[in-house]
Amino acid sequence: MTKTNSSQLPSHIGPYQILRELAKGGMGEIFLALDPGCGRQVAIKRIRSDLSQNKTLQGRFLREAKIAAQLTHPSIIPIYAINYDKEGIYYTMPYVEGETLKQIIKATAEEEKTGVIIHPIGSSIPALMRIFLNVCQGIAYSHSRGILHRDLKPENIIAGKFGEVFVIDWGLADFIETVNEAERSDSRISVEIMQEADLTNPGKIPGTLSYLAPERVLGEAASASTDIYALGVILYQLLTLQLPFQRHSVQSFKRMVKYEKMHNPQEVAPYRDIPLHLADIAKRCLSPQKDLRFPSVAHLISEIESYIEGRPEWMPMAEKRRLGISRKHRPGQTHRHYPQRRGDGMGEPDDLAGLFFRKHQTGGGSAS
Length: 368
Prior knowledge:
By secondary structure, the chain is an alpha+beta fold. It has 2 domains: 12-94, Phosphorylase Kinase, domain 1 (2-Layer Sandwich), CATH 3.30.200; 98-311, Transferase(Phosphotransferase), domain 1. It has helices spanning 55-69, 101-114, 125-144, 176-184, 214-217, 224-240, 250-256, 265-268, 276-285, 297-309, 317-322, and strands at residues 12-13, 16-24, 28-35, 40-47, 81-85, 88-94, 98-100, 147-148, 157-160, 165-167, 174-175, 314-316, 356-358. The protein has a 6-stranded antiparallel beta sheet with strand order 1-2-3-4-6-5, with helices on one face. A 3-stranded antiparallel beta sheet has the order 7-9-10. It has a two-stranded antiparallel ribbon with strand order 8-11. Strand 3 and strand 4 form a beta hairpin. The chain starts with 11 loop residues before the first strand and ends in a 10-residue tail after the last strand.
């Protein structure tokens, strides 16, 4: 592989002409390249050159590519080809022009400090919810295939300039059965804090500390519920432009995990006019007790769709049953949007009132 003298970038990887570097993380690096066969621009990902001889990372990288290649969904970045040659292992995927959610959140937060709101996406909660819905649909699909992402965060979500939404970086993804067996058999459970796009070291529990469900740091295996928790952190950020918790280290998180307190999104960012419905959804996703979160991403999707579609405040019980919204899915829920258990002062509606159930006023509208 030849390198240019000026930038030290490879001039080619296999048959692909390298145009520029797009990103570099803890394990991989991504380049913009020209595919000579199709005459199109593609993104190429490979193991970082300084780590390319690491056999363990080679295995993980190949596994990432093969898992991602099995997922065919409009919200999941597709894999064009996986290549093995003298350049090593690398794979190609579409090059998407756009911004990550992390960039959108950061730009919007900076704008709001100046009082000048101009970002067409970040300044519009309805527009952000449409992106979030696409993300949830992609994750619901991956869960249906038995695959957990395990590293959901804003920098792993791209919003394209033409309306595309992609969940990217499946480097920590794994099959649910494999996750449970591997993590439960590891007696040396520990967590590697990930800075920016850095990946966890082999043998460490994967995840980024700010998006890690409390049970993970206490040694429980990853699950669909831990992905739902990470989606809740992302939703909270989209609503408030802030993280729900400030976690500085694994050690302090372990000490304070039982005492973490999340502030109501509407109180954190009152100027953003956050709908109560969305605030309650975020709070449920972020419940420290996993059995109080949504039982599946599909249930989360139905609530986000309810907001976007502007469903009426009162909904027939038949529609409630169709959506799978019932008391058994909301044990001990304390927010008034969800019925609580009997004996807590509220209980279920009586037989006459039970023809309908209370839903919050929704505010879905067009993107500004």
